[in-house]
Amino acid sequence: MAGGSSRAASTVAVLMGGPSAEREVSLVSGRECAAALREAGFTVVEVDCGPDLFTRLSEIKPDVCFNALHGRWGEDGCVQGILEWLRIPYTHSGVLASALAMNKPKAKEVYAAAGLPTVVGRLACREEVEAHHVLPPPYVVKPYNEGSSVGVYIVREGTNAPRLAETMPDIVMVETYAPGREMTVTVMGDRALAVTDIITDGWYDFDAKYKTGGSRHVVPADLPQEITDACLDYALRAHRALGCRGVSRTDMRWDEARGLAGLILLETNTQPGMTPTSLAPEQAALHGYSFAEFCAWMVEDASCNR
Predict the structure, then answer these.
(1) Would residue 3 show up in a list of annotated catalytic residues for this protein?
(2) Both 232 and 110 in a single domain?
(3) Strand pairing partners for 43?
(4) 147 has a pLDDT exceeding 70
(5) Which residue has the higher pLDDT, 108 or 143?
(6) Active site residue: 32, 46, 146, 267, which one?
């Protein structure tokens, strides 16, 4: 699908919105990607996804779907299954990798089998979590199948067991808190791009990720070479172990006082945020990709039945 003329003849459906807690973030990503793909020469149809997605795509008959959905349904293998059934090539990871990466306990099992360092954690019912400390503080409580730091509680030493919001699921993930610097690495195809050091005034929560001035990105991160190399290696191994394709982004924390032993893998995002100032496009820019070129690369990498 190289070249402007072939791109102009190709229709790309940009999937965005959806029903998850990350709907608004997805709409922003989707609109930015749609504009970039038009700039790159594609014919673009923007699709705010709902229960009629199968019917709408059957009518549109796109050559490729650019999946800009975030969160459950769009990122956990469900939409990927619809696209497989329709035989429409799509960006990012397939059904199994998407489902594994979104299910935090299963992803941790995959990381462990690949020899990647993770924190201690387990599933627990909300009644148990609210009744007493499931792990020694400090620890983190979060949904086991959400992204964008939706519904994350940090339980500090000297505090009571948390009272969870009604919107939290009945089963949650409880993990030992990993101190240190927040870092992330994008994988594009078969290479890890760079390490970004994410600097915030506190926890890297939803507001820090998406509100203006919520965080500052230092890319490439100023790190010892041993830590940079390990970050790149861990991200690529996580991408491959989960069976990801296209673009993924793996988040880590590094406790400087512990050296290499303080580097911990948190999770892999199979559909990272996609605006020109998002983490993955920033790293792609270091390798010479404009935002439009980065989006075009993903379209040209799209496939199905994998």
Answers:
(1) no
(2) yes
(3) 11
(4) no
(5) 108
(6) 267
